[in-house]
Design a protein that fits this description.
By secondary structure, this protein is of the alpha/beta class. Helix content is about 45%, strand content about 20%. It folds into 2 domains: about 1-75, no CATH class; about 80-335, EAL domain (TIM Barrel, Alpha-Beta Barrel). It has helices spanning about 1-5, 30-35, 45-60, 70-75, 80-90, 130-135, 140-160, 180-190, 210-225, 240-245, 255-260, 265-280, 295-300, 320-335, and strands at about 25, 65-70, 90-100, 105-120, 120-125, 165-170, 200-205, 230-235, 250-255, 285-290, 305-310, 315-320. The strands form 2 sheets. It has an 8-stranded mixed beta barrel with strand order 3-4-6-7-8-9-10-11, surrounded by 5 helices. Strands 1-2 form a two-stranded parallel sheet. It is globular, with a radius of gyration of 23 Å. The N and C termini lie far apart (about 70 Å). The relative contact order is 0.09. The structure holds ligand C2E and calcium ion (2 copies).
């Protein structure tokens, strides 16, 4: 590794690149064969798989070059068969968190958030498994499952003669590596003959680590189909403004952490006001996430934010509860008229 990190060639373009290396290590103890790996599992691809999993823990963290597969990593490991079992047995459940129009407090949309009703580990929130799925690639299938579930729900509403509000689904950056990502979404959309504008795709700024050209191209193709695109967690990372400059997105979601920390000070409020202002200049809709108090809701309203999402308004809820809510919202509206 030392040799590699010192590798330089002076005569070519390569001299401009620094080269780093990392490795994942799985130490085989004799007892592993009997205890941790069943005899049938003990083959070389399993062993390599474990080493690779350890490696995925440190990829992108430049100071760490070596990772060992250990007890903690072992607990995180989810196998293909676990996920297959979960999908077959409907263990993944889609919840919807309503979003409200900040001016008239009517339901204006929702965000799909996945949960795992695990047969032995119990009810798991996404922070327990989404980061793992992002490393082992299962997130791609899971996102498609959530997307299809939402399409199915929207179709049901249309069949009932009701105009449903737009629902957003989270999209991992892993999709960008899949050649047929856009086609897959389109195929599912067509299966339910659903107008694309009933779905919003949420991307986060971690996507900024990929090539801007590639992302712009993917976003253009998604826009051509008719999807709305939102930038999630705006303000939480390093490259929010850079992304905004380069990418064509319709909705800006102001990160909840950012909002929590700053809403109590004048300076924080000025920043929120400026973000909303900037988004409006760019022709974008603003959504504030994590709104927990009436004071926060009022502040957002005063500053012209369009939509709010948070515990103050409603928690994420099972689809059936959300459907009842949508129905009563319609009733409220017709009563107002
Ligand atoms: P996110 O996309 O930022 O989703 C918003 C999170 O904030 C949700 O957490 C929601 O329950 C939580 N939240 C909503 N209102 C409030 C509030 O007033 N206060 C606070 N403190 N929190 C609030 P959740 O459901 O645990 O999801 C966590 C993250 O997991 C999501 O963050 C998203 O990044 C990821 N995730 C969830 N579902 C999916 C999915 O289907 N696909 C992908 N790729 N990621 C998902
Ligand atoms: Ca989101
Ligand atoms: Ca968010």
């Amino acid at each position: 590794m030392d040799d590699i990190s010192e590798y330089r060639r002076t005569d070519t373009e390569i001299s401009k690149c620094s080269v780093t290396s990392c490795c994942g290590i799985y130490v085989i103890n004799d007892t592993d064969i009997f205890n941790n790996l069943k005899e049938t599992e003990f083959n070389i691809s399993n062993v390599i798989g474990r080493a690779k999993f350890a490696l995925s823990e440190i990829l992108g963290k430049y100071m760490n070059y070596c990772a060992f597969y250990d007890e903690e990593t072992r607990n995180q490991l989810v196998s293909d068969s676990d996920v297959e079992y979960a999908i077959k047995n409907n263990e993944f459940v889609v919840y919807i968190q309503p979003k409200y129009d900040i001016k008239d407090h009517t339901l204006s949309g929702g965000e799909a958030l996945v949960r795992w009703n695990h047969h032995s580990k119990g009810f798991l929130t996404p922070d327990k498994f989404v980061p793992i799925f992002e490393k082992n690639g299962f997130i791609v299938d899971l996102d498609m499952f959530v997307f299809e579930t939402v399409c199915k729900m929207q179709r049901k509403w249309l069949d009932m003669g009701v105009d449903p509000v737009r629902i957003s689904v989270n999209q991992s950056r892993m999709h960008l590596f899949k050649r047929d990502y856009v086609e897959n979404l389109k195929e599912i959309l067509d299966k339910y003959s659903l107008p694309a504008e009933l779905i919003e795709l949420e991307i986060t700024e971690t996507i900024a680590f990929e090539s801007m050209d590639v992302i712009s191209e993917v976003l253009k193709r998604l826009h051509d189909i008719g999807f709305k695109i939102s930038m999630d967690d705006f303000g939480s990372g390093y490259s929010s403004l850079n992304m905004l400059k380069n990418l064509d997105v319709d909705v800006l979601k102001i990160d909840k952490g950012f909002f929590e920390e700053t809403s109590n000070s004048k300076r924080g409020q000025d920043i929120i006001e400026s973000i909303i202002d900037m988004a409006s200049k760019l022709g974008m809709e603003t959504v504030a996430e994590g709104v927990e108090t009436v004071e926060q809701a009022e502040l957002l309203q005063e500053n012209g934010c369009d939509i709010a999402q948070g515990y103050f308004y409603a928690m994420p809820m099972p689809i059936s509860d959300y459907e009842n809510l949508q129905l009563s919202n319609r009733k409220d509206k017709s009563e107002q008229i």
